[in-house]
Each structure stands twice: as C-alpha cells, then as structure tokens.
Specification:
- The structure is a single chain.
- The strands form three sheets. Strands 1-6-7-11-10-9-8 form a seven-stranded mixed β-sheet. It has a two-stranded antiparallel sheet with strand order 2-5. A two-stranded antiparallel sheet has the order 3-4.
- The chain is elongated and about 75 Å long.
- 39% of the residues lie in helices and 19% in strands.
- It binds zinc ion.
- Zinc ion binds next to loops.
C-alpha cells in the first residue's frame, strides 16, 4: 500500500508541475483527490490494513494530503499570476482570444437530499413548514420540550447562548426574562406550529441548527435537520416505522438496513433511536461510523404529553408521531462523503462533484 501511495503521489506531483491552465489543475486534483479519485480510492483501503500498521499508513496519508495541498495552492497562485501578467501585457483588444467560460453552479448535496425529501413528503400529503428563525428562546428550545431545569443540554457546553447586555434585549415572558440561544434543534418550532394550527395536521421542515461542540469527521458545530410531525386523534406506531423506511428508500433508491433501539429523550414518550447501516463503508467500519458499521440517523417517537400541552393540545385527545433526521449525515451516506466538515467548507472542489 505504501508503495502504491508513493507511486500515485509521484504521478500527481509530476502532472501538477506540468500544468499550464487552472482548468487542468482542477482536473488533475479531482482525478487524484476527488470522490472517485485515484488516491481517494487507495485511502479507502486503510480499513483493510493491519491494526499495528494503521498509525504508520495514517501518517503517510496525512503527509501526502498536506504536501499535495501545498503544491496545489502554489501552482494555483502561479497560474493566476501568469494569467494576470498576460492580460496586463496585452495592449490591444484581441477579439480572436477565446473568452473565459463562466463557472456553472450546482446544488449542495444537503440541498439535493432536502429537495428529494420535500417531494416525497408532499406526495404523502404533508405540509412544508418554514420557520425562519434561527434564534430562539430557552422556553421554546428547552422548557416546552420537557427538558428538566438542570438538564446538561442547557449548559453552554452544548448550546450557543446569546450574550444579553441589557434587559431590553431579553425576551419578556410571563415568567420574567428569558435567555436566547441559537436553536440547538428544530423541535421548538414544532411547538410554535402546534400553537397556531388546529389538528389533525402533518408537516415537515428543514432547518439549520447549532451546537457548541468540538468538530471532527462526524460532528460539526452547525448542521441541518429535517423534522416531520403527524398529529391526529389516533396514530399507530407502525405508521411511524413505515414513514422511516419510506424516507430512506426514497433517498437511497434501495432498501436500507435499519435498527431501532429504545431511546430516552425528554420530548418523546416512548422514544427510540434509529440507526442505518453505514453506507460509506457498507457496515465494515470507517471514521464516519466510528468503526461501528451503524450510524445514528434519527431519533423519533410519540411527542411527550408535556410537549403536546406546551403546543396547546390536549394529550388525552391527540396523539403524535415525530422524527428528526440529520440531513447532512444522510447526504454523507448517500454520496459516500467521509467528513462532515467538508459540507460547510464552501470548497468548490468538493461542491463541484455533485
Ligand atoms: Zn462506516
């Protein structure tokens, strides 16, 4: 493997040094480091390497990435400068010189999945809800979600609280002043929906959420969720399972192995956690699934009676079923992306592949 890596690295650097245009530069980069790039393919084999060799190969891979990135940036700068030089040197306008092609944009992988899910739910008779606010109050984010006052999720460790200088900035409630935060999940907005609509209803909505946590290949401080809620006078639990299967089959175009585990969340009773087989490694184990072969894809369950009450609904009269999908993670599974940080990097080399 080491030999193969060395050989490909040599090839890559040689080609890069001979590049004359930015277009070729991008192409060569993608040929080696793109989603199906030659080096990317070899990097994937690291999972088959003996455990004791893993750190050594890991370091070699890391060094290759750093070196490649450095040479790539240098070449890019040189080519850009050369181009500018040529333009500056041209005294007269030459109409025969081919024009610069405009870059064509593409949809972000998360947007692709969001659109697919919106289509699927519209067909199932769901309303697409659009709660625009990304700043919310402690009341909606935690109190109405049945989080006890001392729940650790309320701490600054997990939530981005907004500094409030004067009482004027604070949201006045009947209980006094309330803290504001970047929404840590979408579910608070579901309570707003319940407060302003008469059941029965079924709706879905996508949205960006924020968590104050350390980032790694599987975690980001901001990501997208997709929430679905059905409220009716009678809902069977199997309807929920069918919903989950339908979503995954729609996104992946094939049957996906899932497992459901009892899960405790303050806002659902009963609650469960749904895992899907990791589609990046096919269940063998990789950095995305933390070598477990399974990825937590969504929590779900029946909204807790206190959540229904917060939404102004009588829990004796109404039942609900709720799921909340991590959109970025679904996109990663679908497209075989192994680092969530790429999703928000704004790196065009990454985005152009979709
Ligand atoms: Zn995996």
């Amino acid at each position: 493997m080491q030999k193969k890596l060395d050989q490909l690295k040599g090839e890559f650097l040689e080609k890069l040094n001979l590049t004359k245009t930015e277009r070729d530069l991008e192409k060569i980069y993608m040929d080696y480091f793109g989603r199906k790039g030659k080096l990317t393919e070899v990097f994937k084999d690291v999972k088959n390497v003996a455990v004791e060799e893993k750190p050594i190969i890991g370091k070699i891979i890391n060094d290759i990435k750093i070196e490649a990135e450095k040479v790539y940036s240098e070449m890019k700068e040189t080519l850009t400068n050369n181009k500018q030089q040529t333009i500056n040197n041209k005294q007269l306008f030459d109409p025969t010189v081919p024009g610069t092609l405009r870059e064509v944009g593409s949809l972000h992988p998360t947007t692709i999945i969001k659109n697919e899910l919106n289509d699927a739910f519209r067909q199932m008779g769901f309303e697409i809800y659009d709660p625009a606010e990304e700043i919310t109050s402690e009341g909606y984010a935690f109190d109405s979600m049945n989080f006890p006052p001392d729940h650790p999720a309320r701490e600054s460790m997990d939530t981005f609280w907004i500094k409030q200088q004067t009482t004027n900035n604070k949201q006045q409630t009947t209980n006094g002043f309330e803290r504001l935060c970047l929404r840590p999940h979408l579910t608070g907005a579901s309570v707003r929906f319940m407060q302003t609509h008469q059941p029965p209803f079924r709706f879905v909505y996508p949205g960006r959420v924020f968590r104050s946590e350390a980032t790694d290949a599987g975690h980001e401080a901001t990501f997208y969720q997709y929430e679905a809620l059905i409220v009716d006078d009678k809902i069977s639990f199997s309807a929920g399972k069918i919903l989950v299967k339908a979503i995954l089959e729609r996104v992946f175009g094939k049957e996906i192995k899932i497992r459901m585990r009892a899960g405790f969340f303050p806002f659902v009773e009963p609650g469960f956690e749904i895992d899907m087989e990791c589609q990046v490694c096919g269940g063998k184990g990789c950095s995305v699934c933390k070598h477990k072969g399974w990825v937590e894809i969504m929590p779900g369950g029946a909204p807790h009676p206190n959540v229904l009450k917060a939404g102004g609904l009588d829990p004796k009269k109404w039942q609900g079923f709720y799921i909340n999908v991590g959109l970025d993670r679904l996109a990663m599974m679908k497209f075989g992306i192994d680092d969530i940080r790429l999703m928000h990097s704004g790196d065009l080399r990454f985005l152009k592949q979709f």
